[in-house]
Amino acid sequence: MNKIISILSPENEKTIKYSINGREYPERLTNQAPIHFLLNEIKEGETELDLIFTVKSKSSINTIKKLSEFGYNFKIIEHSVDYNFSLQSIICCLSEIVGKINTSDKIYIDMSGGFRSASILLIAIVRMLKIYNIQAEKIVCAVLNGNTISIENNFNIYNMFDLISGLDEFVNFGSAKELINYFATSNDKQINQLIENIKKISDDLSLCKISFLSEDLNNLYKKLFNYNYTAEKEKSGIINILVEFLKESFKDLKYDNNKLELVSIIDWCLSKNMIQPAVALIIDALPDYLIGKHLFKIDNDKISYETKNEAKRTRHSVESLIILHNYTIYDFNNNKFNADIFKDCQKYLLEFRNGISHANLTCNLSYDKVLKFLKDYMFYIKAIIENKNENFEDLCKDIQYMKNVFRQTNQKEKI
To answer: Which comes out higher in pLDDT, residue 382 or 309?
Structure first.
């Protein structure tokens, strides 16, 4: 079915003109012109309009009904809404209209009339319909030029909401789906290269491809800060939004030897509540990073043949395996206590990740508790890197909590 959604304005005493297919029609500043335009568009497509949804305006309904005199067949469904924009009234209207639309319907939106906040209701309707995978065919608006009305297509302007949603989706949740859809028809090579980089990072985060994440983030970071803006005004505006928003999102990432620093990448993941990629980076990359920087020490002479062989077989580094096995390690101050904290954290995070990977995480861990544990742990790691004397009381409490949770889980499994 074809359906038009419009919020009607009351009739005005002033009579103006608009044209459809070269023929002039009079109207009194209602929604007659844009609805007539949409009716004509639908008729040219050899389909009839089934329903018009209107937010009721008594003086305008009859004007719209008169359009049937020009050979258009349609039904009108009226909805009453408080012109004082009562929240309850708007919610009821939104619910009623959306409830009468099916996924197979073709929707046309007239943004021309109504009360001052009518556009907010119409945008809410279109965004709600998108959740059900219903995309508006046209979004039009009547523009008054002297005594005549022209009809403008606002679809591309409305699509800017998709760009904003896509940016939010990527920087806060790691998904590039909305941005990929928005730029699907772009012919701009620089934009397409940026989107390809964003897609790689999204894949890395979703699939925990930790060996690629640092490199792909690094490549995008360099492109953003060495970007050449196109001279074409319309594209330049979109690129400005895209690039500047991403630059702001990545501003806390830090460089170390011409590469993004691992700890700042982990912090970035945690700031976006991306727990799984953060855990993967901590388990698979952090031990090598810290031992490579000589922040923890091990006695190489005591590394067993079995550990070295396991490293070859599993493709883990010897350093990461040492953390997980019963080797004694020390921090740079020969402080065994700090090193034991490090080993405990790595061990429980590995147990946590294995439980997720094998879909058998039966322990009573909440999302908030795990996120707090990770943030406290990274506070501890940064204190070691910066050689600060900090009180790790919160982290020790987190570790004790993890121990108790996993101990209780193991006891239940034995029973």
So the answer is: 382
